[in-house]
Each structure stands twice: as C-alpha cells, then as structure tokens.
Automatic annotation (TrEMBL):
Keywords: Hydrolase, Metal-binding, Metalloprotease, Protease, Zinc. Binds 1 zinc ion. Gene3D superfamilies: 1.10.1370.30. InterPro entries: Pept_M3A_M3B, Pept_M3A_M3B_dom, Pept_M3B_oligopep-rel. This is M3 family oligoendopeptidase. Belongs to the peptidase M3 family. CDD domains: M3B_PepF.
Length: 560
C-alpha cells in the first residue's frame, strides 16, 4: 500500500462475503497442496493478501477511538465485530488443514514452533456457539469506551476530561490537587452504575464463552488466547508474592520520603503524583516541538531509530491531543499492509507526554523493525509480556536526552520516572489478583469493591482516599480500562518491567552493548515464545524465586 499520511488513507469496508470465500478457498488449497513448496507459497500468499483486510480493521479502530462519537466508524466497528466470530471459524478450518498437512514438520522448521503452537491453540478458541457472544463482547467494550470518553466537568472555567484533571492533580497547590481529585472521583462515581452494569455483563459473558469452548474457566481461556503458554496462574501468583515481599516495602519507604519532602504527615492519593514541592518536571514546548525534539533524540540514539522516527513523522502516524469524545489511554497499533506503526495518546501537559514519545515509540520501533525482518504479519509484535519490554526499555534509553525535554528539571524527571516505574508494580498486582478473584468468586458490585479495597490495603498500604467515599469504598478499580477491554493483560506490564529494569542496568554498565542487545531483541519480533526470547535476550525469568529481589538490589543503589 502506497500512502502519504495516515489521514489520507482511504478506508473502504471489506467485502465480508468475499473474505469468507477467500478463507474457504485457502483451506481447500492447503488440503490440495502436492508439495511443501506449494503449501508454503499458498500460506505466504494468504498472509500477504490478508494484510489489506487487517489494515482496514485497524484504520477503522483507530479512527473510532480518536472520536467515539463518529457514527460512521462506530458502525464500521460494529460490522467487523458482527463478522469476527464467523471469520474465526473459517480461519480455524484453515489452521486444521495446516496442522493435518503431511508437510507440517517442514513448515514448523521454516516458521518456528510458536506459529504452530498458535495454530493448535486457535482450534480451541472459535466455535459457532460463541459467534454472537464475540460481537456482544466487543459492543460492551465500545460502550465502556464511549461512556468514559464522554465524561467531562467544568474545572476552574475549563472543560476537563479525566486526563485534563490529572494535570491539576500535579499542582503544587494542595487545595487544587484535592479539588481536582474530588472532581475526578466524582466523574467516575457519576458513571459507576453504568460501568458496574457493563462489567457484570462482561464477566457473565466471558465466563459463558469459556464454558461453551470447553475451558474450565475464563482464566484458562484468556491465558490461551493471549499466548501465555509458558506459565500458569499459579506462577503469576508466585510473581505477585515476590512483588509484595520485595517491592512493596521499598515503595513504602519511597512514599515516606516523599511525604517528608512535601511536608506532609501522610500522603493522600492526590499527593502521590507530586514528586517535588517545587513542582513536577513539565515538558518544555508544544506538541510539534516535542515531536521535533524526539526526532532529534532518535537520530542521535542510533541510525536505525532515526530512520524509524523520520518514517513516523513523514507519514503523520500520531494522534496525540486529548479532546472531547476521544477514547482514554494510549496505544500503538500496527497497519500491516504499509508496515506502519501508529501512536495514539492523550497529551495533557505533564511528563506523561514525553513518556508517550518513548514508551509507545518503543512499541512502534519494534514493530517497524521486526515487520521488515520477519515474514509474517503476525510476527510484527512479540508476545504481550515482551512487547512491554520494548516500550519500557526505550523509556530508559531516552534518559540522556531528557535535558532537551525538561531543561534543569531533567534529573527530577529521571528520578520521578524511575520511582514511578517501581511504585506502579504493586498496583499492577492489585489489578491482576482482582481479576482472578472476580472470575473465581463472581461477586456482585459491592463485593467487587470490597475485594479491590482489601487488595489495595495488601499491596499498597499507604493508599488513602480521604474525601471520596466512592474511592475509599473500593471504586478505584473502574479507572483501569484494561479490566474491561484487555482482561488479564495488565500483569504483563509488571513482568516486562523486570526486563526493562535489567536493560537499564545494562545501560548503566555499557550503553553501546545494551543498545545492541535491545536492537537484537526488537528484531526477534514474534518469532519466539516468551521464555525462549528471555533466554535469547539474556534476560532473567521473573517467575524464578529471587529474580525480583536481585533487580531490587540494583535499583536501591540508584534510589537511596
């Protein structure tokens, strides 16, 4: 696909019936292949032919998330979701044809065991019994996005959404922070009934889908669908325990020090984001100026990263401004036909804007690079736990250029960034254990809030929401979109942070070697399984006893 900018890509709804016929023909061609070379050519042609269909989906998704009020792209997403289950069943037939092929051994040798494993698992994840459920699940997720995207309030004469209020919660004026906190909490409370209803339906629906597919629980189903093949929920529980034992005490120490710096006897939640009594490091420059600084940084970091970021700028592969109706959060998508990443974010005038240009750019760099090396569209991104290693590590590789973004507050930014990366780990464990308990216990809305507040007291004993009965009563879980839209993904950030911290240590010891190792990791893309990639990249296994403690021992030398 030739294109100039993302905005100029022409979107056309795919012919779904033609797509179904293509899948049927592909399956038959696989069955009729008379040699491995013929089978391989059929497989690769189908992969290439599928790129346009997948790109149209991603263009519609991105434009829908940019403006959730756009009726056209809302309808387009509904059309895709209505067909998703039917297409998955036909893709399942093709997967079975490949797995039954007498040439499977040669196929696996060429494309790797992970591709074959994904095909085998795909046979368990589609069924006519859940076609309507898939469409309903997607509709509920869209309803969540619309509901939260539509939340605004007047704050000091300014119409603010959630992201706009977060900026005020970093004010040096504690009264302003508290006022913004109460407004932020009030927005969530105002839609909490609707969010509870959406989540009730999602939990019921997802549990029902798992049962229809023959899984013993939704947790087993989602682990399979995410490609979490190398470990179990029990292994994740061991990792969470390590975080509780080795990270929570360090975070408590950091928060105690922060309270002293701010002259407070104890921190409230709206104090946690303020790193210094003089104010947080705030990026210098407009959006366009920040992009120009990032472009200069990536040219100086390496020749390869410079070429990558030039590509992003030339084709305008960003949507960064926060605006009414825009979906919350940030992400990196990948348009497989032009092999082009796309960065979606909500700038709000805080250091998080710079984090976008490093974190999401880490995802984008990896997919840009690996898609030009690995043959399959599905290999542009690695497994989810590794994708976040690319993004989080890039944040650390950007450290030497922070003076450009923050001036004399660059050291404050680096310290705040490092401590924040550490402090968020217990929260990630809260989110993960919360989901495991919700799907195991199936509590009502009040029960969910009690579970959440109990987990906060366990992992984050410093957390206080004085002034908000809603949050003090356990409502904070609602502000995490992953719980609704990407269930059980959030712990992947914590797993990946271990690898990113190790890259930071490598960077401190030998910057050039660290970058070479990182570049090699990005080239690997989705060609290897999680554990195999950890070995390939020389990273520790976070599930092994002692891994978290070893990493914390290094970080303490940087923090205290």
């Amino acid at each position: 696909m030739d294109f100039t900018t993302f905005q100029e890509i022409t979107y056309t709804r795919p012919d779904f019936e033609a797509r179904k016929e293509e899948l049927r023909r592909y399956t038959q061609d696989l069955k009729n292949a008379g040699s491995y070379d013929e089978l391989k050519a059929i497989f690769l042609k189908h992969d290439e032919d599928s790129r346009h269909f997948n790109t149209m989906f991603d263009v519609a998704y991105i434009r829908n998330s940019i403006d959730t009020n756009d009726a056209f792209y809302e309808a387009e997403m509904n059309a895709f979701h209505e067909q998703e289950g039917h297409l998955a069943i036909l893709a399942q037939d093709a997967a079975k044809a490949l797995l039954d092929s007498p040439f499977l051994t040669k196929f696996e040798k060429d494309f790797g065991s992970l591709v074959v494993q994904n095909l085998r698992v795909s046979l368990k994840l589609a069924s006519p019994a859940i076609v309507e459920d898939i469409a309903k699940e997607a509709a509920l997720c869209q309803e969540f996005s619309r509901t939260t995207a539509g939340c605004t309030t007047d704050f000091h004469g300014e119409s603010c959404n959630f992201y706009g209020l977060l900026k005020h919660m970093q004010s040096t004026d504690r009264a302003e922070r508290e006022e913004a906190f109460l407004a932020w909490s009030g927005l969530y409370e105002s839609v909490s009934g609707k969010l509870d209803d959406i989540y009730d339906q999602l939990v019921e629906l997802r549990s029902s889908m798992a049962a229809k597919l023959g899984f013993d629980s939704y947790v087993s189903m989602v682990y399979a669908s995410m490609g979490h093949y190398d470990y179990t929920p029990e292994d994740v529980a061991v990792f969470r325990r390590q975080i509780l034992e080795d990270v929570t005490p360090i975070c408590q120490r950091l928060y105690d020090e922060q309270a002293k710096k701010l002259g407070l006897s104890r921190l409230e939640w709206y104090d946690e984001a303020l790193a210094s009594p003089e104010g947080n490091a705030v990026p210098i420059g407009s959006r366009d100026e920040l992009i120009a600084k990032a472009q200069k940084m990536y040219h100086e970091l390496s020749a390869e990263s410079g070429v990558f970021f030039d590509f992003m700028v030339e084709h305008q592969l960003f949507d960064l401004d926060s605006k009414p109706g825009k979906q919350t959060g940030g992400y990196c998508a990948f348009l497989s036909e032009p092999r082009a990443p796309f960065i979606f974010a909500n700038f709000n005038g805080t250091s998080a804007d710079v984090d976008v240009l490093t974190h999401e750019a880490g995802h984008a760099f990896e997919s840009y690079l690996s898609s030009r090396i690995n043959p399959l569209a599905s290999q542009a991104f690695s497994t989810s736990e590794l994708c976040e290693v690319h993004s989080m590590s890039m944040e650390f590789f950007a450290y030497p250029w922070m003076e450009s973004f923050f001036g004399e507050k660059a050291d404050l930014y680096r310290y705040d960034h490092l401590t924040s990366a550490l402090k968020v780990l217990p929260y990630m464990c809260c989110v993960d254990e919360f989901q495991h308990r919700v799907f195991a216990e199936r509590p009502d809305a009040a029960g969910r809030r009690q579970i959440w507040r109990d987990l906060e007291r366990k992992y984050m004993p410093w957390r206080s929401y004085t002034g908000s009965d809603f949050l003090e009563g356990g409502g904070f879980w609602m502000q995490k979109p992953h719980i609704f839209i990407n269930p059980f993904y959030y712990i992947d950030y914590a797993l990946a942070q271990m690898g990113a911290f190790e890259f930071y240590q490598k960077m401190c010891e030998d910057k050039e070697k660290a970058w070479a190792d990182y570049y090699r990791l990005c080239q690997s893309g989705g060609s290897r399984s999680y554990f195999n990639t950890l070995d390939y990249a020389g990273l520790s296994n976070p599930f092994h006893e002692g891994t978290v403690k070893k990493i914390m021992d290094f970080l303490e030398t940087k923090l205290f």
